[in-house]
Amino acid sequence: MLVVTRFVVDDPAGFPERAHAALGALAACPGYLRGSLGRAYDDPAHWTILTEWESVGAYRRALSNFDVKMYATPLLAQSLDEPSAFEELATVAPGGELTVTASDRA
Question: Strand pairing partners for 4?
Answer without folding.
Answer: 50
